[in-house]
């Protein structure tokens, strides 16, 4: 059957961390805090895929207490999710995501993000949707305290 999943993630922006989104390291004074590279976009997509497959969320598969995955590249998380779903006989149709970031501008990096995520998932970039928006200066996202991502995924299972 066709199944869809939804994912959401947010990470705090802090000093002395690289800003990695969709596997792209973006020049910015602040980066995202987390146990992995804190790539909120990849994490939201991973959760959408796991949800579509009927699997537990990313925190079950990649606990943030596991020293073996400290600093892991989140494209590797997506590759492992892809392998897990393949093992279950789940095939991927597409993923679609929205990044919510007041800063920096995301649009110059969208093509590279789609290539990275498509490469990790074994999907052509045309099946990887990524949009970006600001939060119109509202709330913690609008104050630039963090970056969030929403994602959906469609699979056959
Ligand atoms: Mg996360």
How would you portray this structure in words?
The strands form two sheets. Strands 4-1-7-5-6 form a five-stranded mixed sheet. It has a two-stranded antiparallel ribbon with strand order 2-3. The protein is built from five helices and seven strands; from the N terminus they run ββββαααβαβαβ. With about 160 residues, it is an alpha+beta fold. The protein is globular and about 40 Å long. The chain has a single domain, classed as 60s Ribosomal Protein L30, Chain: A. The structure holds magnesium ion (MG).
Observed structural traits:
two-stranded antiparallel ribbon; alpha+beta; 60s Ribosomal Protein L30, Chain: A; 31% strand; 157 residues; binds magnesium ion
Task: Please write out the topology.
Blueprint: E1 2-14, E2 19-21, E3 24-26, E4 31-32, H1 40-52, H2 58-61, H3 74-87, E5 91-100, H4 110-121, E6 128-133, H5 139-142, E7 146-156
Parallel strand pairs: 5-6
Antiparallel strand pairs: 1-4, 1-7, 2-3, 5-7
Bound molecules: magnesium ion.
The site of magnesium ion (MG) has 5 residues, from strand 1 and helix 1.
């Amino acid at each position: 059957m066709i199944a869809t999943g939804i994912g959401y993630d947010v990470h705090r922006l802090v000093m002395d961390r690289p800003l990695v989104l969709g596997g792209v390291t973006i020049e910015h004074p602040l980066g995202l805090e987390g146990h992995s590279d804190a790539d909120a976009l990849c994490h939201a997509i991973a959760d959408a895929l796991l949800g579509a497959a009927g699997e537990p969320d990313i925190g079950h598969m990649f606990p943030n207490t596991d020293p073996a995955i400290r600093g892991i590249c989140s494209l590797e998380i997506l590759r492992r999710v892809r392998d897990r779903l393949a093992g279950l006989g789940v095939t991927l149709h597409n993923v679609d995501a929205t990044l919510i970031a007041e800063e920096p501008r995301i649009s110059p990096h969208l093509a590279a993000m789609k290539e990275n995520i498509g490469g990790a998932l074994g999907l052509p970039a045309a099946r990887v949707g990524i949009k970006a928006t600001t939060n119109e200066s509202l709330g913690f996202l609008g104050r630039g305290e963090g970056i969030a991502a929403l994602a959906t995924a469609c699979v056959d299972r």
